[in-house]
Design goal:
This protein folds into two domains: 69 residues, Rossmann fold; 67 residues, Rossmann fold (3-Layer(aba) Sandwich), CATH 3.40.50.300. 43% of the residues lie in helices and 7% in strands. The relative contact order is 0.16. It is mainly α.
Length: 141
């Protein structure tokens, strides 16, 4: 992405499998985990929770016969118009993702939908409101 080339599934899936393996390890040890990443497609979110069962691919830890911890994923989908997000992206300095890739991100995006466990929050809210909404949702779970 830093070179201005959008990532494809071949780039993303091994990375998501690694994240799944880390999540699985941490959840199995009793930790609560917050992961911030752009899991733009439902398949990507499935990989995070199910590993190899999320796609026809073997993730390292998922392939082991050890008892897996049940992982519940709450997707926090921050939604906003292309114009708003583009405007914010243009103000960033030193970020790895160039603004030219935003179109590919919107094209790839599959917003969460039922039966996925998610909340959608507008990026038009201020950061304090976004955090409060997330925290309130987590208290109800």
């Amino acid at each position: 992405m830093g070179k201005g080339i959008p990532l494809n599934d071949q780039d993303r899936i091994p990375w998501l499998c690694n994240l799944h393996d880390i999540l699985l390890r941490d959840v199995a040890s009793g930790q609560r985990v917050v992961l911030a990443c752009s899991a733009l497609k439902k398949t990507y979110r499935d990989i995070l929770t199910q590993g190899k069962d999320g796609v026809a691919l073997k993730c390292e830890e998922s392939g082991k016969e050890a008892k897996q911890a049940e992982m519940q994923l709450l997707v926090v989908h921050l939604s906003g118009s292309f114009e708003v997000i583009s405007g914010r992206l243009l103000k960033r300095e030193g970020h790895f993702m160039p603004p030219e890739l935003l179109h590919s991100q919107f094209e790839t995006l599959e917003p969460p939908a039922a039966p996925e466990n998610f909340i959608q929050i507008s990026v038009d809210k201020n950061v304090s409101e976004i955090i409060a909404t997330i925290m309130e949702t987590l208290k109800m779970k």
